[in-house]
Amino acid sequence: MYGAIIGDLAGSIYEYDEMLDSRLGIRNIGRRKEILTKENIIDADSFYSDDTILTMAILESILEDTSYFESLKKYGLEYKDFIPTDKPYFKNMFSPNFIKWCMGLKDGDSYGNGAAMRISPIGYLFDDEEMIRQQVRLATTPSHNTFEAIIGAEEVAMVIYMARLGYSINEIKVFVQANYGHSLYLELYKLIHQNSFNCSCEYSVKLAIFALFASNSFEEVIRNAVSFGGDTDTIACIAGSMAEAIYGVPTDLKEAAVRKLPDNFNDLLDKGYSKVKTLKK
């Protein structure tokens, strides 16, 4: 779960410019490559966004055995006017359609990447494959009741679960290819130079999965995910949630994330991690 949050933090300061550039057909390659060599992946200006907030909503729902629907709606309405930074980024924390859903003004039929960005607590806190699939569906359908969103969220949770069981990254790669059909033969160079802003769940999970399998450490996964540009915080959030299960989270990055989060989020995370079990095949 810290992996998801670190990805969110790392990508946060790039997303707004990427969105503006995409409307003009611009790809700022220099900015995208910056993350590959900069000293820190969490900057002083980095901030947590809706990715982290809704991850906390899912985590709280599990810990308190409450409805995912109610928890997502509660967090959406509570944080809809939250502005995490004085930088001129987004006017609102969430997409307009998500807020409409929270207010009962829109059906939960999104195919967006919000389904996958928030799902990591299910991968970490449930210990049975069928239960994980069931919980993913319950957590996703309230706001993202589309096949694309459900299957994307399931894929992320299942990668986390398999890593917890001790499967190697190559075994997980075979599983992903067999069950979810992603091509893992993309090229980093081409993605950095050609990727555009795309918030669909299918596309974002594909990029996150590729970043995971094209890297050899937790930090490299995050750097590669952000370097693709586009929806940087969410791609890195999804990638980081899976990378944590495989590589763990470096202590310095966890401590940096803790300093960025409010106390109630850190308290939830402490409770969540206390319930994560060590699994065996």
Describe the structure in your own words.
The protein is mainly α and 281 residues long. 65% of the residues lie in helices and 0% in strands. It contains 16 helices and no strands. It has helices at 2-23, 29-37, 50-64, 68-78, 96-102, 114-117, 120-125, 129-140, 147-165, 169-180, 188-194, 201-213, 218-227, 232-247, 251-260, 263-273. Helix 1 packs parallel to helix 13, helix 2 (29-37) packs antiparallel against helix 13 and helix 9 runs antiparallel to helix 10 (169-180). It is globular.
| Alpha carbon gyration radius | 17 Å
- Strand percentage lies at under 5%
Helix/strand/pairing class, anyone? mainly alpha
Order of helices and strands: HHHHHHHHHHHHHHHH
> Between the first and last Cα atoms, what is the distance in angstroms?
22 Å
Question: Would you identify the regions where 5 or more consecutive residues have pLDDT less than 50?
Answer: none
Question: Taking all residues together, what is the mean pLDDT?
Answer: 95
Largest sheet: none
Percent of residues in helical segments?
A: 55-70%
Oligomer: single chain
How large is the count of helical segments?
16
* Outline: globular
The number of strands is: 0
